[in-house]
C-alpha cells in the first residue's frame, strides 16, 4: 500500500499558519510515503516567500516533490519573467525535493509524471490561466511511454485540465487535447490545484474516461471550504481519495479572496 499527501496552493505571503502547522503535524504523526505539492507555493514569487516555503517544506519529515503554479512566476520583475521565469522555483526544487521511494518500491509501484500548465505569457489578458503547450505535452507523454507497460501513472499539474464545477475557474488552453492523450495511455489520475476547493471526478474524453483530483488550499485565500488536502491511498491497483479538512474555520472566512 502507498499513502501520499497531495497538497496545493500554500501561497506563502498569505499562508494560513494554522493550516500549515496542522499538515506538518499530520506528516510527522502519520508518516505518509510522500508529499506532492501541485503549485502556487508563493503569493507573488518574492524571494522571501520562496525562502519561507523552503523552510516549511524542508522541515517535513517525508519525501517531497513540487510543481510550479502561476503564482510562482515573477510578478514584479518582467525581465526575469520573460528570460528565466522558473529560476526561483528551480532553486527551491533543488533544495526541498526528495525522491518518493514509495515504500522502497520506487518506480516498480507507481510513477509520477509532471505536466506543466504555467506560462510566462499567453495570447490572452489573464496569464494566470492554464495552458498545455505542445512541447510540454509531448515531453510528458514520452515519459509515460518510456515506462514499463502496465505501471500505474499519476500525472501532476497546477491547473485542472478542464473545468471542474468549482467556484474557481481553470480555462486551460489545450486541456481537452491533453486529457484525451492521457486517457489513451490509461493514467491512474491527474492531480492539480489552483481552484482552492477539493474535487474528485471522472471526465469523459474521446479516448475514454480520466480521473481528475484537485487539492484545496492551505492559505487564507479560501473560496467555499476550509483549508484542505487530499490523502491518496493506492492499494491493489485501486486509488482512493480522502479530502481532509481543517476544523474550526469560521464561516465568514469562506469566499474571501485576495
Question: What do these coordinates show?
Answer:
- The structure is a single chain.
- This protein has 258 residues and is of the alpha/beta class.
- The chain has a single domain (2-250), classed as Metallo-dependent phosphatases (Purple Acid Phosphatase, chain A, domain 2, 4-Layer Sandwich), CATH 3.60.21.10.
- It has 6 helices and 10 strands; from the N terminus they run E-H-E-H-E-H-H-E-H-E-H-E-E-E-E-E.
- It has helices at residues 17-30, 47-58, 78-83, 87-96, 134-145, 175-184, and strands at residues 2-7, 34-38, 64-67, 111-114, 153-156, 189-192, 199-203, 210-214, 228-235, 238-245.
- The strands form 2 sheets. A 5-stranded mixed β-sheet has the order 3-2-1-9-10, covered by helices on one side.
- Helix 2 runs parallel beside helix 4.
- It is globular.
- The N and C termini lie far apart (39 Å).
Provide a concise account of the structure shown:
This protein is 25% helix and 21% strand. With 258 residues, the protein is an alpha/beta fold. The chain has one domain: Purple Acid Phosphatase, chain A, domain 2 (4-Layer Sandwich).
Annotated CATH architecture: 4-Layer Sandwich
CATH class annotation: Alpha Beta
| CATH H-level superfamily title | Metallo-dependent phosphatases
Q: From the structure provided, what is the oligomeric state, counting identical versus distinct chains?
A: single chain
Average pLDDT confidence is: 92
Summed up, the domain count is 1
